[in-house]
Amino acid sequence: MYPILFKIGPFSVHAYGFAIAVAFLIGILMSLHYARKEGIPPDQILDLAVYVIVAAIVGSRFLYVIGQWNEYRDNILEIFMVQRGGLVFLGGLILAVLVVVWHARRKGIPILKLLDALTPGTAIGYAITRIGCFLNGCCFGLPTDLPCGVVFPPGSLAHSYFPNQHIHPTQLYASASMLLAFFAFLLLYRRKRFDGQVFYWGLILYSVYRFLIEFIRFSPIHWLRLTPSQWMVIPLAAWAVYALIDKRRHLKQ
Asked: How many domains, the chain?
């Protein structure tokens, strides 16, 4: 693949870092659009963006490093090289949501309106980021005999685990899944009946996709035959389903 897109003198532009930058830019623009629909001042989104970007990167990197500590304990500085890959979205999502809730309460913004406004941008940003994962050769799948299998080149993380083997391009599966979710959110927004509806569905769709894809994605850690990500999304989805049912019950009263 293409972990380095191009070089400018001594500086290298990494595909993963570039994808993250584009993802945040598109995500912010999308969030600004839906913030206006929710009656949230655009400047609040721009103020929040800085906090969310930091929280998303820190949370994602923290969870990844914890899971791959053996690779970093002898080279602490490598922890900060996020442009080379190595982020766990769930860690970033959890910390970013906490930051959003904190910001909303501090500024007096309705929390669920804000989370709804941020959901479509998060989905399209995720889809873009996973393309960067594919070019970088991280977040890869298990060996497969299917025609869609991809052989990653020497030098990539995928090749170091499965040299010259066809493996599932789970990065592209992930990108396609969240792209479909993004279009679903656009349609859902047109029929939105209560605050939180888009956000809760976002958690459900992400949780279902993540739970299923983990069966064909490489993970060095399993607890009772499930990966840590699968265990994390189970309560996440359950809470979102409960919240949707509770909201709809109150609408009927």
From this structure: 1
